[in-house]
């Protein structure tokens, strides 16, 4: 059974998020969606999300259930957010087309853990319409 991890804020879930998670799930048999903690979003993006982490988590859980996608949704770690790689040991890590991520650091962690995890950048979905910053949200 293969596993993919995806990361995100998912503030005010929209069709771009739908596309991202659908693409991520297409890589594996099961998905783990890691929801960014409120304090991490503020630290990285300079502002708090409009919805708190528990609401964002519930929206993504509802999406997975509605689409009958096998997986789970988990809150990220407040410190060292990439520790989830060691916890879940995924076959794939799916990154959004515009997601801020240190791919070299991710690959270093994968190597340290002795994993063969593939890091995949996914395609955008009408970024001129369905991008959180355009819709007034945080990614």
Describe the protein's architecture and organization.
This protein has one domain: Rossmann fold. β4, α5 and β5 form a beta-alpha-beta unit. The protein is globular. It is an alpha/beta fold. It contains 6 helices and 5 strands; from the N terminus they run βαβααβαβαβα.
Distance between the termini: 30 Å
The CATH homologous superfamily is named HUPs
Query: Which fold name is given in CATH as the topology?
Result: Rossmann fold
Q: How many β strands by DSSP?
A: 5
The helix/strand class is: alpha/beta
In the sheet with the most strands, the strands line up as: 3-2-1-4-5
Helical proportion? 25-40%
**What kind of sheet is the major sheet?**
5 strands, parallel
- CATH uppermost class: Alpha Beta
